[in-house]
Amino acid sequence: QDLRIGIIGVGQMGADHAERVVRRISGARLVAVSDPDLPRANALAESLGEIRVIEDPLALIGDAGVDAVIIASPGFAHAEQLMACLEHAKPVLCEKPLTMDTESSLRVVEAEHKLGRQLIQVGFMRRFDPEYAALKQLLDSGELGRTLLLHNVHRNKSVPDTFRSEMIVRDSLVHEVDVARWLFDDEIARITVHAPKPTSLVANGALDPQLAIFEMANGAIADVEVFVNFQVGYEVRCEAVAEKGSATIGLGVDVLTKRAGQWGGAVPEDYRVRFGTAYDVEVQRWVDATHRREIDGPTAWDGYAAAAVCTAGIQSLQEGRPVEVEMARKSEVLG
Ligand code: ISE
């Protein structure tokens, strides 16, 4: 029996997931979409076949014809929609951020825990990228000894005008927050976010680029350059430095061409291109796990931890100093 999926939010990411579910995912079928922009939802539904448009996202979640939900709405809408998924016991793949603040993320974690079943998976898709997965495997194998440092670069070609300093932390830097927690298998204890003199090419007052330092609980350190108006294209790199070697991913060495007196390759336009495979693997594994009544990826707790780090990161950016990350103890919340 195919998993009947409903998607909430059909902007860039939601539309991308809709196409993915229809064209590339097995064991699942897209049955409904919801978006406040009705013409946009109607156009997408029509282009993909027989798909219902349900205007109210909460009605989509409660609909008896929807077995599982993908939330790709803006972050501020997540808390209410996640709670509704838990109420209706619907498995949900929720795009990051889990919610907009530490408290509401913790409430989501607690509500899910009360149900006694994990229904929430968070869309930190980098864990499913073949390059990141290989890096994780290499570091975990111990071949290089203990991992000491991570150097990360995260650049977007450009972002909409509404993408301000806080969003750079909660929507972009949040990926490295998860990557660092995942690769080190440890929590981030302290974060500092520096803001160099911003690029002159954005006029919305956003502090872009930013340079973040994560101090892990066990003493390791990660640094991150995040620059969302890089102009050139999308670039995500990670170098791990360990006791007996280093490993780098994201060099973008695809097809090397030589022409007109120059050599080089292509820079992806955005994350849908660079992480296309990661999204495919993520959604397929989520569908397969949902059939088994499980999840298979980042948990609500991971979303909560990331929210706590981002909250501290924003405070650091505003106050110009390192900020301790305040979060509950896992054992106290999850028993
Ligand atoms: C976007 O929302 C994403 O999640 C991308 O993965 C990230 O690289 C980008 O910076 C964000 O704008």
UniProtKB/TrEMBL annotation:
Keyword Ribosomal protein: no
Record domain GFO/IDH/MocA-like oxidoreductase: where: 132-247
Pfam family, one: GFO_IDH_MocA_C3
EC number: 1.1.1.18
InterPro entries, sorted: Gfo-Idh-MocA_inositol_DH, Gfo/Idh/MocA-like_OxRdtase_N, GFO_IDH_MocA-like_dom, MI/DCI_dehydrogenase, NAD(P)-bd_dom_sf
Catalytic activity: myo-inositol + NAD(+) = scyllo-inosose + NADH + H(+)
UniProt entry tagged with the keyword Transmembrane: no
Source organism, top-level taxon: Bacteria
UniProt keyword list: NAD, Oxidoreductase
Every Gfo/Idh/MocA-like oxidoreductase N-terminal domain range: 3-123
Enzyme class: oxidoreductase
Function, in words: Involved in the oxidation of myo-inositol (MI) to 2-keto-myo-inositol (2KMI or 2-inosose).
Quaternary structure note: Homotetramer.
Family: Belongs to the Gfo/Idh/MocA family.
Protein name per Swiss-Prot or TrEMBL: Inositol 2-dehydrogenase
Taxonomic source organism: Kribbella lupini
